[in-house]
Amino acid sequence: MVFLNPFIVIIGMIMYIIPYLWPLSFAITMFVYHILLKNRDEHIKRLKILFKLKNIDLSLLNKFKEENSLKILFGYLISFTGFSLIFIKISNQLEKVYNKISSIEELQNLEYSLPKFDSFLFFLFLFFIWFTYTRLINKIIKDQFYIQNIEIQKNLIDKPILKYRDSNFVMFLRIITFNLYEWFLLISLIKETTSLYIADETYKNIEEITIKDKYEKTQEEQKETFFELITPDKFNTKEEFLSYVYSELSKLDTVTRLKKMDEMLQKKLLTKEDIEKIKKLF
Asked: Rounded CA gap, 225 and 104, in Å?
């Protein structure tokens, strides 16, 4: 995974304002989308491994493919390029026709002066831009928003981090703000996705995730065996034994703690009086 600094978006926004630098600004924007999509694919890939290690049902993630989402970015680039070229062509044609207009009647018939095929291409590429961009936004936001909800259900994260945005509404806001909204969206997405990957620890390499999971399992096994091996006769006094049991039980959550005390009672390692003493301490 690659974590971007939101400052890169601010640089792109400044370049967008400066004449003749908008191609560089557009390149920065596409680079940011490229990283966000690449991180999305890697996020799903690592989550599937994490789910497998923690014995969580993988079918919950089956509809989210860790495919090469960059295809949709490539489609958006083609659509944007085609739209830009046809827009420039139509603008030049309109300028030529407008310069020849000498009456109001000719101005009213301006729309008939444009080739129908060019007009068709204009709206076709506009449709493709809308379609590919909304798909792109859904890949980054919608997919990971639903995945985030699954992570909350499975106690992998505590609370929502990534905010939901409707892709069509995002496109609408881009149009009415003359692309200003897109810059703020990218800054927010960089911050939110980075926080999400850190929270669920998928920012780590797959090897690190595997090692951490094995360590946690070993720790759990040690906790299990501890209560089987410990006996009062290994301590000088009963109070020393109870003190040690209390210190170990304090490392567990309430439910597990009660379960372990019940097991020790059944194995006659503790008496009811001992358990009452330990409970009072808690």
From this structure: 93
End-to-end CA distance of the chain: 43
Distance CA 45, CA 40 (A): 9
Q: What is the DSSP string of 143-179?
A: HHHHHHHHHHHTTSSSS--SPP--HHHHHHHHHHTTT
Is the dihedral angle over the CA atoms 214, 220, 226, 228 positive or is it negative? negative
Give the number of residues written for the chain. 282
3-state secondary structure of 22: helix
Average pLDDT over the chain, rounded to an integer: 83
CA nearest neighbour of 86 among 41, 49, 44, 117: 117
Whole-angstrom CA distances from 212 to 53, 147, 216, 219 are 10, 22, 6, 11
Query: How large is the average pLDDT for residues 206-219?
Result: 59
CA distance 162 to 200: 12
pLDDT at 55 (0 to 100): 84
pLDDT digits (tens, 9 = 90+) for 76-132: 999 999 999 998 888 887 777 666 665 555 555 555 556 777 788 889 999 999 999
The span from the CA of 47 to the CA of 187, in Å, is: 24
The predicted model scores a pTM of 0.71
CB 28, CB 12: distance < 8 Å:
yes
